Amino acid sequence: MTRLTLAEVEALARAAHEGQTDKAGRPYAEHLAAVAAGVRARGGDAEQIAAAWLHDAVEDAALTRQWLEQAALSARTKAIVDALTKRPGEEPEAYAGRILATDGARLVKEADLAHNADPERLAVLDEPTRKRLTGKYARMRVLLGPGESGRGPRR
Question: Is the alpha carbon torsion for 25, 49, 87, 123 positive or negative?
């Protein structure tokens, strides 16, 4: 099976999230593009960049878990997307543990957190939402541990 190119993954992610907005009311694709750019800037590879474009697709019900399983993506990209997909009622410790146990997922999550915690992005939110999200993002950074990770070993 021929794998999707990064351009095809980007187009698919943009289409899947069409009409969705972030907490600030911006088109959701802007967040996806920022996370993909953050992964690239951190030295991430094509599999991680593809996962960045798709990191919220299953969680936000833009695409199904079945789609992900059958998609023309590498097993590593699928594993990263799955690791970054929060489960209903899941504790942050379990979520962080799955990310840390999945090759390449930490770097994608770090790019996601960096964009989510961008002060300019947070500034447009109301004070209670800004405080809640700032605390949530800080806690996840602690759970993921210090420093940015590289791509890590291939498994």
Answer: negative
Q: What is the CA radius of gyration of the chain?
A: 15
H-helix or E-strand spanning residue 84: helix 75-84
Letter string b/e over residues 139-151, b meaning 16 or more CB atoms within 10 A of that residue's CB: ebbeebeeeebeb
pLDDT by residue for the chain (155 residues), tens only, comes to 799 999 999 999 999 999 999 888 899 999 999 999 999 999 999 999 999 999 999 998 999 999 999 999 999 999 999 999 999 999 999 999 999 999 999 999 999 999 999 999 999 999 999 999 999 999 999 999 975 544 333 33
Tell me, what DSSP letter sits at residue 66? H
- The model scores a pTM over 0.85: yes
Please work out, in degrees rounded to the nearest 5, the angle formed at the alpha carbon of residue 85 by the alpha carbons of 79 and 87. Answer: 125
Query: Cα torsion for 27, 105, 150, 148, to the nearest 10°?
Result: 70
The answer for residues whose C-beta is within 8 angstroms of residue 134's C-beta and 6 or more apart is 117, 122
Contact 59, 32 (CB under 8 A): no
- 21 contacts 67 by C-beta, under 8 angstroms: no
